[in-house]
Amino acid sequence: MANTNVKKVRTSDLELKDRLVSINRVTKVTKGGRTFSFSAIVVVGNENGVVGYGLGKASEVTSAIAKGVEDAKKNLVKVPVINGTIPHKQEMRFGGSLVMIRPAAPGTGIIAGGAMRAVLESVGVKNVLAKSKGSSNPHNLVKATVGALCELRDAYSVAQVRGISLNQVFNG
Q1: What secondary structure, in 3-state letters, does 29-58 show?
Q2: What pTM value is reported for the model?
Q3: Phi, psi values for residue 100, rounded to 5°
Q4: How many CB atoms lie within 10 A of CB 36?
Q5: Which terminus of the chain is more solvent-facing, meaning fewer CB atoms within 10 Å of its CB: N or C?
């Protein structure tokens, strides 16, 4: 599933906002007792077409979140957002999660839940219809949602790939 149209983004000139998607306490049993640590999945975005996700693990919650934010800043991608929605419908599967997103009319809002909502808000989509099927594991949902957003193409990039003008894309 190699994606050729993913555009990496530099973090130097972006104002990124981070959203905590989920935090999970994990236990390691040793002969001295139980050792608790935390894993956090975090989504960052500038609410203008740039989004990334990261996973942080640490013995404290705040450290895990900070590590997740740092990891997310290393994995930023550019997503086409046109008039507050996405250019076309898209499906993506990751693990046991299936994610379906489709454009919506202005005023609809973000019709999505949980992990998908955090990703879509971070990327700056205002109107979208989203559905998740299968596993509701937040890790897989975030990865499937970001993957679906990475697969989106706007009309300009389609015209470039086909080697035709923008008018010919719409008029056939």
Answers
A1: EECCEEEEEEEEEEEEECCCCEEEEEEEEE
A2: 0.87
A3: -125, 125
A4: 10
A5: C
Q: Which amino acid is at 105?
A: A
Please report, as a single letter, which amino acid is at residue 93. R
C-alpha to C-alpha distances, 36 to 147, 148, 160, nearest whole angstrom:
31, 34, 52
Strand partners, 100: 91, 131
Could you tell me the strand order of the sheet in which 128-134 lies? Answer: 90-94, 97-103, 128-134, 110-111
Residues in a beta bridge with 93: 98
Sign of CA dihedral 24, 147, 82, 78: positive
pLDDT (tens digit, 9 = 90+) per residue, 134-152? 999 999 999 999 999 999 8
The predicted-structure confidence for 16-38, as pLDDT tens digits, reads as follows: 899 999 999 999 999 999 999 99
